[in-house]
Sequence to fold (476 residues):
Amino acid sequence: MTHMHVAGSIHADVTSPAPQWLVKPTDVNALDRRLWSDTVDRGAGGVLTIGGLTAEQIVEQTGSPVYVIDELDFRGRALSWREAFAGWKVYYAAKSFLCATVARWISEEGLNLDVSSHGELMVALRAGFDPARLALHGNNKSDEVLRLALTSGVGRIVVDSSDEIGRLERLTAELGVRASVLIRVTTGVEAHTHTYIATGHEDQKFGLSITGGQALVGMVRCFHSPNIDLVGIHSHIGSQIFDTHGFEVAARRTLKLVSQFREATGVTLSELDLGGGFGIAYTAEDTPATAADLAASLKDIVAHECRGFGLDVPQLSVEPGRAISGPAGTAIYRVGTVKAVEIGGGHTRRYVSVDGGMSDNIRPALYAAEYSAVLANRASDARPVLSRVVGLHCEGGDILVRDVFLPGDIRPGDLVAVPASGAYSRSMASNYNYTPRPPVVAVRDGTLTPLIHRETLDDLLALDAGLSPRHDEVER
Ligand SMILES: Cc1ncc(COP(=O)(O)O)c(C=O)c1O
Ligand SMILES: N[C@@H](CCCC[NH3+])C(=O)O
Fold:
């Protein structure tokens, strides 16, 4: 275990080594356009603005921390995916970030929606999203969620196991309805991403294995089931992927399966869903492709593989989540403390503590995800100092931005903004340390619209049965 010594002064020369990829900026106030949503800029006095509102104006209305969605950016990305993938079905992956307003934006921009839990399905239905344009995912769907999907007319159910096929056979018979189904398969693809977010390889919980034979068995079973319409197969190889090679292998293996199914049954399946996982830029190190480039590559890949198997190109779909919601979101935090810490070898590291942390963004702790940040409430003339932005939780790993150059004069009361925060941060938030989860707001043309309210301490205390007993609760 390493011991850290707190240096006496926050002005101590901070010399901790920067990782190789992180270049010391010549202008610490500069915004790397690739990381920020479209309307982000620096206004008078260098204040960061989003959607025509300054960071201070936003925080005055919402408090901090707050997640800010740039509505025009979000809608623009959704539309660019729909247009780039014209002829395909584009499902926005709700798990990356969902609320009723976002479901309506997605609907208005003409995309479909992928939901993967009872809660996400409820939000979509309550928001008035057309059920026929919904896909339901999940490796352990309850009878309750399957019933809701079957009775509300959800367009497709992506089946994940043979148990689920049995459950669907029972429920469709019981309810007197039919189920339109895709089978999720594992393709054996080793996606080049963090192990926890790779899902195509064999040893994980999702889908039915192609190489193990379960996929074909499940497909044939669905085919013979009286109330199940098997329309296609689904593969999702993982997340935050930059290289199309994994999709190429997945397309080849899934289309081979389609041709084997054709041999077994004489029927050609009409749909292939290649899932999501398209990477975004969290830091200057990340170089994502545009939706248009991805669409062109994936179209070529599928056409080539179809030719190889003598298949017509099926109806194709993709499920981008992060690529739409991620870059549209910015997290804003208030700085509480700044300290320089001796880290050995004559180095010190500057720790900037803010009023959020791993409870609102678990990704750095969970996947060692890298982020970036800037001082948001003013510009600074001070020199760039390598800093670590950390949260307020009781964990050494409560890091939000591991390495970033921030102005040397950053101080308590300043605001820090973290770009590319729209996906899998607020949606994966927890109440660790009894911390209420931050609100989410949309900004557009100088107007702020609440999307998700700030959770309050009262909300949390109301769940504590020792403080707020519920009269209908059964005593055990
Ligand atoms: C089945 C499925 N589709 C789509 C997605 C969306 O992934 P991303 O947000 O990385 O595009 C996920 C999450 O990884 C997923 O599990
Ligand atoms: N939640 C993950 C990705 C997995 C998404 C669900 N399949 C992330 O933040 O990158």
User: Anything to note?
Assistant: Residues 1-12 have pLDDT under 50 and may be disordered.
